[in-house]
Write a structure and sequence with these properties.
By secondary structure, the protein is an alpha/beta fold. It has a domain of 225 residues. The strands form three sheets. Strands 1, 4, 5, 6, 9, 10 and 11 form a seven-stranded mixed sheet that branches. The protein has a two-stranded antiparallel ribbon with strand order 2-3. A two-stranded antiparallel sheet has the order 7-8.
Length: 344
């Protein structure tokens, strides 16, 4: 089942090939990335109607059933091809997170400006997350990619209700031409759902490097993610687990898995080369299950092994680094859709 995401995404004709990184908020470079050994699994199948025994071939994997929803509220309309990429990322995350959250009313016209509003449209009943999506010029090609994170939390259980993703429109054509836009969006949508952006809020981030300095042994303490990390080890690891990026650069640091340990996993701050496959590991999925409000499915987890060596820097020209800002929550939202400044 761990190769299911590969087969399914190929069936959608969308290659998930992430080659971007979040940098610091001030436009600094992300950390160096490297190469490592992962097994992308075998996503090939028998195209014939039966095998040599006369038995029918196995059915193509279906996406797991889920009651979790993601509503995209576009501030600037994407092109049809870009919309397909956003929809594919929604399909993936709504198959990883499976439970409906407490329903809450959301009037787009009442969304605060800090969260991308106000917008036109009818009142929504949100049982997952609504995300405002802004595709506008920021600072020209090759500089700031954008920003992503949860902006409003439910006032009942602090689960994300409203998030925002901002992309520099001057970068979108290049990302799309290189075939990497799909996984860039998948990565950033993970931040909206709380990856790296709600860890400290929920008490899972220890020894943060932005506060304590570069080189701190920053780590995520969710027990399920720790268990999956230890399963994925190809040897021993002497540091605190699960290791989180500790470069000290806000944006990359404290919000991603550590680059020189996890290497090319989806939620590291950068990925080497324009690879045809980037794994979403069970470690990442377990980090969401560690959050107090999510149920998950591991059906789309990809095969992944944590290397036992530190990764070497990527050869020049074989990685693509971007700067982006991780957005932290600013509001609590009632079930009736009223916004209150978050005082925590």
């Amino acid at each position: 089942m761990k190769a299911a995401r590969v087969v399914w995404i190929l069936a959608l004709s969308l290659a998930l090939t992430f080659s971007a990184a979040c940098g610091d908020d001030d436009g600094g470079e992300g950390t160096e990335d490297g190469t490592g050994d992962t097994d992308p699994g075998d996503s090939t199948g028998d195209d014939t109607g039966s095998d040599d025994t006369g038995d029918p071939p196995p059915d193509e994997p279906e996406p797991p059933s889920s009651d979790f929803t993601i509503e995209l509220l576009y501030i600037v309309e994407p092109t049809p091809s870009q919309r397909e990429v956003f929809d594919a990322a929604v399909e993936v995350w709504t198959s990883v997170i499976t439970n409906a959250l407490a329903p809450a009313a959301l009037d787009p016209g009442m969304i605060p400006a800090q969260c991308g509003g106000p917008l036109d449209g009818p009142v929504l009943t949100v049982t997952g997350v609504a995300i405002t999506v802004d595709l506008s010029p920021i600072d020209g090609p090759g500089r700031t990619l954008g920003a992503a994170g949860p902006c409003g939390l439910r006032n009942t259980d602090q689960s994300p209700l409203l998030g925002t993703m901002i992309f520099d429109s001057d970068d979108l054509d290049v990302l799309e031409q290189r075939g990497i836009l799909s996984t860039v969006i998948l990565h950033e949508m993970g931040h909206v759902l709380g990856f790296g952006t709600l860890w400290e809020f929920e008490g899972f981030l220890q020894d943060p490097s932005v506060r304590n300095g570069p080189g701190s042994d920053t780590h995520f303490t969710g027990p399920l993610a720790i268990e999956e990390f230890e399963k994925a080890l190809s040897g021993t690891y002497s540091g605190a687990v699960v290791p989180v990026e500790n470069s000290g650069q806000q944006g990359s640091a404290d919000g991603h898995w550590r680059e020189n340990v996890m290497v090319d996993e989806l939620m590291t701050p950068s990925i080497t080369g324009f690879e045809p496959f980037v794994p979403m590991s069970a470690i990442t999925i377990a980090a969401f299950e560690d959050m107090p409000y999510f149920d998950v499915s591991y059906a789309l987890a990809d095969p992944f092994t944590v290397p036992t060596r530190f990764a070497a820097p990527a050869p020049e020209g074989e990685s693509l680094d971007f700067n982006c800002k991780l957005i932290r929550p600013k509001f609590e939202v009632s079930s009736a859709g009223d916004f209150y400044a978050l005082e925590r």
